[in-house]
Amino acid sequence: MQRDLFALAILLAIIITAGCQLPVYTVKSISRGQTAINGNLELTSGKGPYGADVRNLKFVVAYEKDDRVRIVIGDSEEKRWRVPDYVIPGLKVQGRADQSNLVVEIPDQGKQFNIKISRRNGQVLFDTTGKDFVFEDQYLVLSTAFTSPHEPNIYGLGERVNALRLDPRDNHYTIWPQDNGNLENFNLYGHHPFYLDQRNDGTAHGLFFLNSNALEFNMKYNKNENRLQIRAIGGIMDLTIFAGPHPQQVVQQYHDLIGRPAFVPYWSLGFHQCKWGYDNINNTIAVVENYKKNDLPLDTIWNDIDYMQDLKDFTFHNKNFEHERVKKFISDLHANGQHYIVIVDPGIKVEKDYAPYEIGLQKGVYIFKEDGKTPIKNKVWPGITVFPDFTNPKSHEYWSDLINEWLDEFPLDGIWIDMNELATFCDGECESDANDISTPYLPPGLKLNKQQLNMNSVMNASTWYNAHSFYAFMEGYATRKALLRKYPNKRPVIISRSSFAGTGRYNSHWLGDNDATYRSMHLSIPGMLTFNMFGIPLVGADICGFNGDTNAQLCARWTQLGSFYPFSRNHNSIGKIPQESYVFGPRITDINRSALKNRYQLLPYYYTLFYKAHVEGSTVVRPLFFEFPTVVDSFVVDTQFMVGSALLVSPALEENQTVVDALIPPGRWFDYYNGTEISGNRRLKLFTPLEKIHVHVRGGAIVPRQQDALNTAQQKKLPHNLLVALDENGNAGGELYLDDGESVDAVSTGRYTLIKYKASFDQSRYTLESHVDRAGYDNGVLGYVSFVGLKSKPTKVTVNGSAAKFRVEEDKLTVDCGNSKLTKDLKIVVSL
């Protein structure tokens, strides 16, 4: 049925378009400068399919930086809606045409307008020549040819449950935040109009279309047609081209524009447990105790809406979550180095004498009906609710006061913000006579106000029609401000369901309400990889699945995979069977324990990657082609992924699977667990019993690790170690970042340590040396170093000039470093 609707919408668009000559905009004036090209356009012939063309446009093409060009096309009067600068910064010209890596071509005055952007070597990246260009009031179209000499490899355009590589042959990708559950190929919770285009020659570029209205990216690639068409139902055209040319550079350039991710606290990388259905404090306490009893790591316990009194925000249930017991529970968690997070929804119950409602009413901070005076109401969990307008600065103080007064009594460690697309139980309003905005065009299958507010609802920024997509972005901003007010020098942990470009500056994300199926487990991989491209690295799916009942085998496989998610949390729905890591008997508990302990051992490596993401805009987990951009076979791989540049993870993703068909990229690779070498540049069948998840370390990498513990606070006191995987020439390199794990200003004030490690080979000996780039945090010791990839067994090993104890097990050499200080210079010499 859905496909039939899509086909009908496409047919109608063809019929409408065929009946008229499409608009032609002519360059009325143009000024070409070293930093920008400015000009005006005039509609000189034709018209759009819906007859509401904007006749006079102005444009600017700015060389924002050497590696990016920004194009803004809007109405001459600049009265149309555009995304505010406080969401994504406006034009900032810091580059010059003669220094840019990109060449922009625009016709002279009097000629038909088009834009062509190329690299300096002539490779065309974006070209509107001969393609549709429409600028109506509620229908904007900008088209480019796919300019690669092969079928394009496109990634991004979220949020959706989809394969990693998007199918360009004849597909529509709609962007409009809605709670569409776990439906594949539908617009879901987030608004991310960014894509990366990877070429077979190894180069990549990116495009970001900044527009908060409903969008459609319409792709056609066949022998008759070759184009990507961007359609919007409002706003302006504001797009940025990123030169790359390496895929990781494309992402870094994008994050430089939208804002690099906030640095997360160390404990947020530990394991998290939640369930909608922990319906009293006793059940919640029992989960924590059972993790400890079963020797399973756990950093954070979560409560879903069960904890609330009558499902109202900023309350704990008077009986089921008796307040004094909750306070003691939080105190006990903190004493043990653990943490507590609960859910908060944006909907405020309409109830006399309910303080959050009454205060918001007095302050006038809610989203209003079309009259601009009456708060619009809809229905969510507690019943009839109203919603703070987070684009109104007054709402930030309101929200902060509520959170801080609540946390004064219940010192939570983070906040989970959900239902913030918004997701409501009625379409528009719960009143049958409600009016709404009509549109001449909608992307196929989209109903704007499905489980949403009316589109004509009024916010401080604009209408809900225009500003809805970044509602959660602003809620995240307000929530971060509130937590920093309460804990001024602690990095906030905020996990949000909905997101917008730049959300990573303020909060993180989980992939929403997935299913307890192998398919859902598989598709969590492209989900987390894509969100790392979007600048939200702390991301993961509900381990074992949210909707439906899981089973022992699926949960074991998912825990193995989920132990490598940046954000690792087990969570499921009310009424579904328990799926905590200890519930499926001794064998599955042992498998889960092994997976989680391995995760904790790798946390120093993950934390270093999060530091790099924060300061450089890089990814924590990434597709294989990010590291091997000339390996064309890697472009479609979404059953494997890289953690940083060092680790290749190849999970089992099918029921009863015992063999994984893995792509092993070029180079030297070693089994992460035993050091056995395998050769790269081939596909390999890997035997995968239930106890096994395949992880390979890349030759040339040095991976920092640490002894595992039951939580990160306990682990902080334990020794670190290094895994040195030598490449074909006997070389390797890596980094370790250390700080106190929570201070907001650790990086800006230099209260951190950054150590660089380098291994090399000369004739008959290997040398490993450390260089302390910065020693602003002196805490931690090095217990041992393991080497894999030696040419032969060693005869002698020294550590800083003194003979050292060592052992050789199978293909691995382990050297005792005597718990030496990490900030002390290290030199290990291995003689063959």
From TrEMBL:
Q: Per the database record, which ranges form the Glycoside hydrolase family 31 N-terminal domain?
A: 110-217
Q: Which CDD domains match?
A: GH31_MGAM_SI_GAA, GH31_N
Annotated catalysed reactions = Hydrolysis of terminal, non-reducing (1->4)-linked alpha-D-glucose residues with release of alpha-D-glucose
Residue stretches making up the Glycoside hydrolase family 31 TIM barrel domain: 261-609
Q: Where is the signal peptide?
A: 1-20
The EC category is hydrolase
Q: Name one Pfam family in it.
A: Glyco_hydro_31_3rd
EC nos: 3.2.1.20
GO:BP terms for this protein?
carbohydrate metabolic process
Extract the GO molecular function terms from the UniProt entry: alpha-glucosidase activity; carbohydrate binding
The keyword Hydrolase belongs to this UniProt entry's keyword annotation? yes
According to the entry, every stretch annotated as the Glycosyl hydrolase family 31 C-terminal domain falls at 617-703
Q: Which domain of life is it from?
A: Eukaryota
Q: Which family does it belong to?
A: Belongs to the glycosyl hydrolase 31 family.
The name on file for this protein is: alpha-glucosidase
